[in-house]
Amino acid sequence: MDIVTQRVLEDAGDVTRVMADLNAVCETGGRFAGTESEVLAREYLAKRLEDIAELAPERIPIEDMGWTRGEAFIERISDGKVFPCVSLVRSPETSEDGIVADLIDIGRGTEADFETHADAISGNLVMVRHEYMFAAETTHRRQKYDWAIDRGAAGFLIASHLPGDFPVTGSSGAIPTRGIPAAGISAKTAASLTAGDKKQIKIRIEAKSEPRRIENLILDIPGRNDEWVVLSAHIDGHHLSESAMDNGTGLAAVLNALRAVLPCADTFERGLRIGFFTVEEWALAGSAAYVDNMSDAARESIKLNINLDSVAGDPEVTALTSGFEKAETWMIDQAAGIGQKLGAHRPLMRNSDHYNFARHGIPAARLVAGFDKPNSNLQYVLTPADNRDKIDAADMARATQLTAKLVLAACNAKT
Ligand SMILES: [Zn+2]
User: How many Å lie between the centroid of ligand 1 and the Cα of residue 368?
Assistant: First the structure.
């Protein structure tokens, strides 16, 4: 290993500094988009970027965004018992009387499950299961929600995969022109609702759609040519926890990888662009707005997107490489060059901001910890347990070193 790389790795692996940023981000709260907590986090990140790079990031507002969660509950009609639930992001609200219908439990909620129960779903409330999100075989919540709408469901419930009283949250994927009320519940609530044979329930959701100031932060460190490497992480999270793994880890790793590589930046061939996107938890809306609104030429100038989302919580890190074989091999080689084993999963996955780059043909990969390890701490993402106690400082430091190495190599590459 050359002396420059060695120095960068030492800097990137500074546990005290990377954990200080992780702590500061988590202190702002769960960072649900449009809340005070997200604003605090965004301002912290903007200030840190300015301190590190001596340059203020550009703020790019995202139009037509804003959704505020109100009260939500479920009532069992047979005995009037009330259960808590968490409305999914951007769920439409119900009328004041709520929706009263039969609860149709279709199990996991695969396409085949929807097929099997097709006749019962229309006009009723369909219930599916949340899944460990970081696995090859996962069927995403938004896909299930979409199938429920296609089948004419009146509402959508998703029960946690974790036993006990852990409610689950996430985005519904609803947009103003297409959506049904949707909520997450714990496994315990699901069991209570499906016990016995009278399964009529009422669901009531309050929510408000109102414009909010929502901004992506973009910082450019130019290189010698006009090509760019985009290093990204999403700012926003959910209100149930500190959103520590998802995505405090990615934010802290980006800041510290930037700090570590910056002394080498004056010899970069390609420029380094930092993208802190928001409303990722709202069906990837922040990065979609950013990439979709670029000119073709600006998009073509981006040669690689490295997207950090939930990069610690387990020692093993995997690159989700979106079908880009060359980028995958290259990333594995770079990791091996610093003695790290990087896993890889090639099929395109729509589970974070890299997707919006990849669907425009830009080589893009997400780094994620705990892939295909359903018993790792990553199982607590989107639940009240996604807090700092799930994160090992050594894992944070290693993920930051890997990021710094990838950025260094990608920005120094001539083609
Ligand atoms: Zn995430």
Answer: 9
CB-based burial label for 333 (10 Å; 0-12, 13-18, 19+): exposed
Domain locations along the chain: 3-65+212-412, 70-208
Instruction: Decide: 147 and 111 in contact? Cβ < 8 Å.
Output: yes
Ligand 1 centre distance from Cα of residue 350 (Å): 11
**CATH class of residue range 70-208:** alpha beta
End-to-end Cα distance, the chain? 22
Which CATH fold would you assign to the domain 3-65+212-412? Aminopeptidase (3.40.630)
CA of 212 to the centre of ligand 1 (A): 21
Ligand 1 centroid – CA 352 distance (Å): 6
- The yes-or-no answer to whether 3-65+212-412 and 70-208 have a common fold is no
Give residue for tokens 């692996």: 13
Q: What is the pLDDT along the chain (415 residues), one digit of tens a residue?
A: 899 999 999 999 999 999 999 999 999 999 999 999 999 999 999 999 999 999 999 999 998 788 999 999 999 999 999 999 999 999 999 999 999 999 999 999 999 999 999 999 999 999 999 999 899 999 999 999 999 999 999 999 999 999 989 899 999 989 888 999 999 999 999 999 998 877 899 999 999 988 888 999 999 999 999 999 999 999 999 999 999 999 999 999 999 999 999 999 999 999 999 999 999 989 899 999 999 999 999 999 999 999 999 999 999 999 999 999 999 999 999 999 999 999 999 999 999 999 999 999 999 999 999 999 999 999 999 999 999 999 999 999 999 999 999 999 999 997 6
Q: What does the CA dihedral 308, 312, 315, 318 come to, rounded to 10 degrees?
A: -20
Q: Are strands 82-84 and 155-159 parallel, antiparallel or unpaired?
A: unpaired
- Ligand 1 centre distance from Cα of residue 133 (Å): 10
DSSP assigned state of 2: -
CA distances, 142 to each of 35, 182, 385 (Å): 23, 11, 22
**Cα(280) to centroid of ligand 1, in Å?**
7
Whether the upstream peptide bond of residue 247 has omega within 30° of 0, thus cis, is yes
Q: Ligand 1 (ion): which residues have CB within 5 A?
A: 246-247, 309
Q: How far is the CA of 98 from the centre of ligand 1 (A)?
A: 31
